[in-house]
Structures are given as structure tokens and as C-alpha cells.
Design a protein that fits this description.
Elements lengths: L6 H4 L2 E3 L7 H14 L3 E8 L2 E12 L4 E2 L6 E2 L4 H14 L27 H5 L2 H6 L21 H11 L14 H15 L3 H10 L8 E2 L31 H4 L1 E3 L1 H9 L13 H7 L14 E2 L5 E7 L2 E7 L4 E7 L7 H6 L3 H5 L10 E2 L2
Helix pairs in contact: 3-7, 3-8
Length: 369
């Protein structure tokens, strides 16, 4: 592959915190990158709300030998859904809406702005909560996923086209079907209720309180690369610069650093320190699964062991955030993806280190904020 760098060179790293290495982490990451030919990675790990490990591996740009750091911006793909869910809950807390509010119809949040009238009954039954839980009744992430079609349409145009041409397949609330398009609609709800662009509202209401200033919606082409953003590398003939990333805003458009996402995670994790940016009631809603799928809540996957997470995947992109029951949180970002066991191995990459009481974590005593 054109981007593959001799292995020992590729894994030169940049350690942002100037702390000692943790061999258990470095060996796991090194083996993963070698196995799956990952050009660059960034990780950030927190414990009890403090940043204890933050490191870049390999390269943000292999041609110019620019090494990856935990402050490089990566596409985070569907991890964006967690950001959107928190933004909706901030609107709920502000009294702008409730999770039970209807989305489409004369008295609903988005009214009759989209598509042709009259709407069918099922469309008018969809609620905000169902969009968050992927139980709206259709528009799943399959070969007919609206978000990967009609790339020249705006989000508004795409919503109108989709509700006119792709009717729901199930009554809302009855079936879990992972829907990027549902989160696109949530982005428009945020804009309607906040009277701001989706990006601006999230930056003001969610990211700024977390101490995050560099997260933004990404561009579509290599020429649109933002300052400090990595280059993305396709495998298996994938082209990482073919999709309308900007239109994906609320379901897959954010770019962020590992350190950014670590700051976000510690302030929605339900642990005492630092104080969460959501109320306890909102955290409960955020992490309670639906009747259709108890393992997916509002923009987060959950399990009975009190672990919460979300992964993201696009050509040239793999990401995951994990909130562990043991007050460890961690972020993993890659500038490639591939098939096989790649995502399973990424998910399991750091569990051994964070579960082993003998892992020699640095004693940095650095709060995220």
C-alpha cells in the first residue's frame, strides 16, 4: 500500500504529556497497527476524571512524515451521534422540547416544512426519542441509506426527498434499525429549536462547557482538510474523500482530537468528578435502552455491566469512545479502517490494560478541565 511506512519508523510516537510510557498500552496499540496497517492513531485515557495517558502513534500524514499526536483532528464518524444526543438533552433541560414531542405534522416540531402533504399517520407518530433510539420505523443503514445518496442535495432537500420516496417500514417505536438519516433529522430539530446552525449550537451548549474549542464539522475533500486534521487512507479500494461529510453533521460529520473527546466523555459519564454538563435525570435518559433494543440508548450503546460506548466508521476512518464501569474512559481514533476483525479488535484494544490493577499508569494528577 502506498501509505505503508516501515514499521519501526511508523510507530515513532508523540507523547503529549511528557510522561513515562505504559508498555501494556503501547504494545497493544503497536500490534494492532501492524496487523491492520494503520498509518496513524491517537488515544486518550482518563481515570476518575483525570487525563492519565494521551498519545499519538504513527503518522497523520505519511507522505510528509508528520507524526500523529493526541491533538490531531480525526473524523469521528458515528461517534457524532453521542454529541447530538447530548445536544438534544440540553434543549430538553432548557425547556425547548421533550423527548416525547412529535417531529412531523402541523403541530409537531418540524411542522410541514418537508416533503409533500398530507403526511401518512406513521410519519406523524415519530418522536424525538425514537429518532435518538433508532426506532423511528425505517431509513436504516443499508444499501438504501439516504445519507449516502444524492450527494449534491442539501440536508433539507434530502429530508424532503426521503420522506416522499422512502416510506417507513415499521410502526414507530417497534423495531430497532440503526439510522443515520434519523440523526440528520435531529440536527434539523436542533437548528429549529435553538435558532442557530447545528454546529454553532453544539459548540456553544455542549463543547464550550466541556472546555473544547477545536471540534468542528469536517470537509469533504482533501483540499478541505482543516488545520491539524489528519489525512485519511482507504484500504480495499475504498476512497476516503467521496462522501458529503459536511451534510453528515449530526450523525457523522464532526472532527475531533482524542483529547477533545476525553474532555467530552468525563462530563457525561455519571461519575462524581468533574461535574457532568447534564443533570442526573438526563444522564439516566442518555443511558437507558429502548424496548426494541435494550443495548442502545440515546446516542450510546450500553450493557448490563454499566459500560457505555459508541464507535464510528467511514472510509479512511475508525473511532470509538468507551466509558468503563471502573471510572476509566478512553478514546481511540484511526485514519484508516479495514474489514475482518478490525473493529472487534479495536473495541477490545485497551480493556486488558484498564482492568489490570498492576498497569503502571502515570501519576499526572491532571484534570481534564
Amino acid at each position: 500500500m502506498k501509505y505503508y511506512i516501515p514499521f519501526l519508523l511508523c510507530l515513532c510516537s508523540c507523547f503529549a504529556l511528557k510522561a513515562q510510557s505504559v508498555p501494556e498500552v503501547d504494545s497493544a496499540v503497536t500490534a494492532f497497527m501492524q496487523r491492520y496497517q494503520v498509518p496513524g492513531m491517537a488515544i486518550a485515557i482518563t481515570h476518575h476524571g483525570k487525563l492519565i495517558y494521551s498519545k499519538g502513534y504513527g503518522f497523520a500524514d505519511t507522505i510528509n512524515h508528520i507524526r500523529a499526536t493526541p491533538n490531531n483532528l480525526f473524523r469521528i464518524a458515528s461517534v457524532s451521534k453521542s454529541i447530538t444526543a447530548v445536544a438534544i438533552l440540553k434543549l430538553v433541560e432548557a425547556g425547548k422540547c421533550s423527548l416525547a414531542d412529535k417531529v412531523f405534522g402541523e403541530k409537531a416540531i418540524l411542522g410541514t416544512r418537508y416533503g409533500h402533504q398530507p403526511y401518512n399517520k406513521q410519519l406523524q407518530e415519530i418522536t424525538i426519542k425514537q429518532l435518538l433510539q433508532h426506532t423511528s420505523g425505517g431509513w436504516g443503514n443499508n444499501s438504501n441509506d439516504p445519507m449516502f445518496s444524492h450527494p449534491k442535495m442539501s440536508a433539507d432537500e434530502l429530508i424532503s426527498w426521503t420522506i416522499d420516496h422512502q416510506p417507513l417500514q415499521h410502526p414507530p417505536g417497534t423495531v430497532y434499525d440503526y439510522s443515520n438519516f434519523g440523526y440528520c433529522i435531529l440536527g434539523r430539530i436542533i437548528e429549529k429549536l435553538s435558532k442557530q446552525s447545528y454546529e454553532s449550537y453544539v459548540q456553544q451548549a455542549v463543547l464550550k462547557p466541556c472546555g473544547i474549542s477545536t471540534m468542528q464539522i469536517g470537509g469533504n475533500t482533501l483540499q478541505n482538510k482543516r488545520k491539524d486534521e489528519v489525512i485519511y487512507y482507504g484500504q480495499n479500494a475504498e476512497q476516503p474523500y467521496i462522501y458529503n461529510i459536511t451534510r453528515m453533521d449530526a450523525h457523522g460529520g464532526w472532527i475531533a482530537s482524542a483529547n477533545d473527546l476525553a474532555k467530552f466523555l468525563v462530563q457525561i459519564d455519571g461519575f462524581p468528578n468533574p461535574k457532568d454538563i447534564l443533570t442526573a435525570a438526563s444522564i439516566s435518559a442518555l443511558t437507558t435502552g429502548s424496548a426494541a433494543n435494550s443495548g442502545y440508548a440515546l446516542g450510546l450503546a450500553v450493557n448490563p455491566y454499566n459500560n457505555w460506548w459508541h464507535s464510528g466508521s467511514l472510509p479512511g476512518t475508525a473511532s470509538e469512545i468507551i466509558r468503563g464501569h471502573n471510572e476509566f474512559n478512553w478514546v481511540m481514533l484511526c485514519n484508516t479502517r479495514t474489514d475482518g476483525a478490525f473493529f472487534n479488535d479495536l473495541d477490545g484494544l485497551l480493556w486488558k490494560a484498564v482492568n489490570d490493577p498492576k498497569t503502571p499508569w502515570p501519576t499526572l494528577d491532571l484534570f481534564i478541565q
